[in-house]
Structures are given as structure tokens and as C-alpha cells.
Prior knowledge:
This protein is of the alpha+beta class. The chain is 56% helix and 12% strand. It is built from 7 helices and 7 strands. It has helices at residues 15-53, 65-70, 107-141, 151-172, 182-192, 208-215, 226-238; strands at 58-62, 74-80, 86-91, 96-98, 101-103, 219-220, 223-224. The strands form 2 sheets. A 5-stranded antiparallel sheet has the order 1-2-3-4-5, with helices on one face. A hairpin with a 2-residue loop joins β6 and β7 (223-224). α3 packs antiparallel against α4. The chain is globular.
Amino acid sequence: MDTIAFVNKPTGVGIPRLQAGKEVNRKHREIRKMLKIEKTLKELRDLQNTLHDLGIEMSIKDADAETKSDYEDAAMTINVYEPCRCFAWVGMDGVIHMRWNSYPDAFAWFRMNLLLDLARGYMLKADNITKSWTHLRRNLDGQDAEMPLPDKLAGRKAEYEDAANRLRDLIKADPIAMDLSPYECERLERFLRDPQKERLLEYDPDDPFYRDMFNRSLIDRDGLTELGRKAMERYVASV
């Protein structure tokens, strides 16, 4: 009877090649991350220049030790202090994070949300000038009637309103401003079912929904704008 010989195959064959393949893949991942960070940085620099033309300073810096202790993979930080405090950070993978949102492949939405925050900041500053003046006059002489602002305060308020309007023009010019979420479209439609309720679409600086709709030029103090109607039609056509 023929005997069957069992031959032990040498162990470790192919391991160097496998390790080399893993190293190549690791290098490719690192290169992709570097390219993503470079792309994100270029987009941030463009936004920084746009804001600088409006008199708004946005800083882009390497993440310091304190930031890295809070966000382990932070590579850069983004800060705007005026007209309101806005902070964001960029991970080692090039993804931007702001508050509870992350923007892995949607820099346009990060840009939009930052511009919305800044526009709201200027509008609140303008509103606060009127509120503070009215409160002061009421405490000084007990007058409830609206008093005209002194020239200096009126000029400062006009500057804030002008800055907010210029930011709103940037937002309005971006096609993404017309992209509605299901919640936004449903809430706009809820008011439009009854024409008498459309007057409720006035700008309310304390309501995030109205704030964003107003700054995106989808509503104004008279109700839904033509751009807002087009945005709703565009949403309905997409579902």
C-alpha cells in the first residue's frame, strides 16, 4: 500500500509581504488625511479672507495642549470673537466640528452655519442698542414712549445692521441657502395652511428657526419671501 506523506508547510511564508502591504495602506491613509487637511485649510483661508473684507477677524491656529486635551485628535482651531463667540476645531482627518455638528464632506454647511451665527450676532447687537436706550430713558424720566436714539448710538446701530445685511447677502447668494430640511419645510407649511397665520412669520431673534429662516432670506417681516416659496417648491420636487 502506498503511504501518504504529510509535509509540514514552512510557517511565516508571506508574512513580510503582508506586513509590507499593511505599511503601504497605512501610508496611503496618511496621505489622504494630509490632502483632506490641506483642502479644509484652503477652504478656511478663503472664508477667512471673505470675513476679513467684512471687518470680521477669524483666526486659524494649530491646536494647543488645552484643546488637544479636550479633543484628542484636534489639529487646528477656528475662532471668531466678534460680533459673537464662535469656536470650531479641525480633526487630524480634516473634518470640521462646531458645537454638536460635524462636517465631514460638507464645508458649505459649516460656512453657512458660521455666517448665520455672525449675522445673528450683529442683529442682536443692533437690537440691544435700542433696548438699552429705551430701558435707560424709562428709568431716568419714566417715559414709556419710544425715544429717538442719539446720533452716536444711531450710527453704531446702523453699522451693525449694515454688517448683518452684508452677511445675509452672502448667505442668500449661496444656493445651499434654499436647501430645506423636512422639519423646516413642515414648519413653514404649517403656517401657510392658514393665510391669517402667515403674519406669525416675523423675525424673532430668540427663536433659532426664525433666525435662520430670516438670515437665509426665506422669510421677512411680511411673511414668506419669493425665495422661501421657491425653496419649498424645490423641496417638494425632491421628495
